[in-house]
UniProtKB/TrEMBL annotation:
The keyword Heme appears for this protein: no
Domain Nucleotidyl transferase: 2-117
Pfam family name, one: NTP_transferase
Keywords: Nucleotidyltransferase, Transferase
Membrane-spanning segments: none
GO molecular function term, any single one: nucleotidyltransferase activity
CDD domains: PC_cytidylyltransferase
Organism taxonomic ancestry: Bacteria, Pseudomonadati, Bacteroidota, Bacteroidia, Bacteroidales
UniProt name for this protein: Phosphocholine cytidylyltransferase family protein
Amino acid sequence: MKAVLLAAGLGTRLRPITNKVPKCMVPVNGMPIIEKQILNLVENGIKDIYVVAGYKCEVLKAFLRKNYPFVHVIENEVYDTTNNMFSLYMTMDFVRDSEFLLMNSDVFHDANIETGLINSNEVNMVACEHGRYIEESMKITVDNETVAHISKQINPEEAYATSIDVYKIGVEAGNILFDMCIDIIEKQGNRNSWTEVALDQIFSKIEFYPYNIEGRWFEIDNHKDLAAAEELFK
């Protein structure tokens, strides 16, 4: 099992903190978000980790080189004109034909979320939680016990749960996902799309199951989120 952490974002709504560090290194009670994710993975036996960096890449590289030298860093030099699908696309040569966990590096969460995904017999899963619907929530719908759609535009009344942006992806699903990235980025010339656009299309091709989490999590996009996360994890 490998892991891909998408960490190229600018984090403009977390300034002035992100004037000095990338969004993924914003600390929650003293611990950078990405450090918590790496520790979660290591606790669950995963050390084959690929981080796609962009904004303040050298700061992140220095931190990882000093503390977690086994982590592979891939630099997205066009982070300011692309979205996270392009960052995922950059990992293709390293994780294709492998099962992997995929996550955005702005989600601070408990390690038992990874544990549950890894231990599940299901090959493909979307980690999710019922409730806590806000405008920015990436919501999912479910049909016949499998995930049907994922989008921020889903009406909360029609949603099954909120995705926490952590996914378990098997070999077949991963290869389909990368083929979609190739089609969207190389053939259509669209480098500004979100990973969830491709995932939404995959659900009709291969089964993904919802994984209803029991641990704590918080997606940190702004200072209000950061304060709430620090209260939750204090």
